[in-house]
Design brief:
Order of helices and strands: HEEHEEEEEHEHEEEEEEHEHEEEHE
Cofactor: FAD
CATH topology of the largest domain: Uridine Diphospho-n-acetylenolpyruvylglucosamine Reductase, domain 3
Subcellular location: Cytoplasm
Pathway: Cell wall biogenesis; peptidoglycan biosynthesis
Strand content: 25-35%
Protein name: UDP-N-acetylenolpyruvoylglucosamine reductase
Family: Belongs to the MurB family.
CATH architecture of the largest domain: 2-Layer Sandwich
Number of helices: 7
Shape: globular
Length: about 300
């Protein structure tokens, strides 16, 4: 399906735009589930200034949705109305700074941050090897793995709001909690500064290898998956609640709760976004009925159902 083409009217309002505006851009191939409809408009800004210029001149009635690497995302089958912003090359830099710090663009994959830190002999960031996704998503959800979280290493970040204003945020400004941060929903993160400590490159790479092996042994990372589906409720593990409710391996259409790790959903081939989301909601219903605990989605869901 397609959505009305509004790129011409958007372009007219931003004659000095350097980034790209594309109509009805397919999104399925940009997500790890490989499902979903198109973006009505896809915008790839050239850099932070280009992003700010575009947002400052974008009508307030046009919805804006930001996506990253698509690792923890369901795009619904009807597509995403308005503008979908995806940061690219202009936000993919990594710079090593004095004092065992790394300044990175938010389009940088988490694994590349971990590798750059290792190469520079900076310890304390290897846990990012175990997080699928990019730095922007890690900031938004306080992503973590192997007993460490984004908040443990973040110094500061930059963001652009819906009005095109640029903000600098300290770690404290994020109000981090488990899988959550508190900056306004319209903030689009553009850059982050991380603090590490002195380390040995070989030892850090060894730790990253151990993290990789642990993931491969326990998670269906070679499948079409969105990673961890539900947050762990306080005092509980989501996968244990799902297993106890009899949902391991359960299917809706071609969507399945992974038999390997039942807090992971997988597209076994030919699943729709509707299948995947319906499976998640059925799991939530069964867990609530079995344990009285209501699971909260960790995967982000955007767009509209197929018409």
């Amino acid at each position: 399906m397609s959505l009305p083409d509004i790129t011409a009217e958007l372009a007219e309002a931003v004659p000095e735009l350097r980034g790209r505006l594309l109509a009805n851009q397919p999104l399925a191939d940009l997500t790890w589930f490989r499902v979903g409809g198109p973006a009505q408009v896809m915008f790839s800004p050239a850099d932070e200034a280009d992003l700010a210029y575009f947002l400052a001149n974008l009508g307030p009635d046009i919805p804006v949705t930001v996506i990253g690497l698509g690792s923890n995302l369901i795009v619904r089958d009807g597509g995403v109305p308005g503008v979908v912003i995806r940061l690219g090359r202009g936000f993919n830099t990594i710079n090593v700074e004095e004092g065992y710090r790394l300044r990175v663009g938010t389009a940088v994959p988490d694994v590349k941050l971990a590798r750059a830190a290792a190469d520079a002999g900076i310890d304390g960031l290897a846990f990012f090897r175990g997080i699928p996704g990019g730095i922007g998503g890690a900031l938004r959800m306080n992503a973590g793995a192997h007993s460490a979280e984004t908040r443990d290493t973040l110094v500061e970040a930059r963001a652009v709001d819906r009005a095109g204003c640029v903000h600098r945020l300290t770690n404290a400004d994020f109000g981090f909690s488990y899988r959550h941060s508190q900056p306004p929903a319209d903030f689009i993160f553009t850059e982050a500064l991380f603090q590490g400590r002195a380390g040995d490159t070989a030892a850090i790479l060894g730790e990253m290898d151990r993290i990789t092996q642990a993931r491969e042994a326990s998670q269906p990372i070679r499948e079409k998956t969105g990673g961890s589906t539900f947050k762990n409720p306080a005092g509980h593990k989501a996968w244990q609640l799902i297993d106890a409710a009899g949902c391991r391996g359960m299917m809706v259409g071609a969507a399945q709760m992974s038999p390997m790790h039942c807090n992971f959903m997988i597209n076994t081939g030919g699943a729709t976004a509707a299948d995947i989301e319906a499976l998640g909601e059925e799991v939530r219903r069964r867990v609530k009925a079995h344990s009285g605990i209501e699971l909260e989605w960790e995967i982000k869901r955007i767009g509209i159902p197929a018409g």
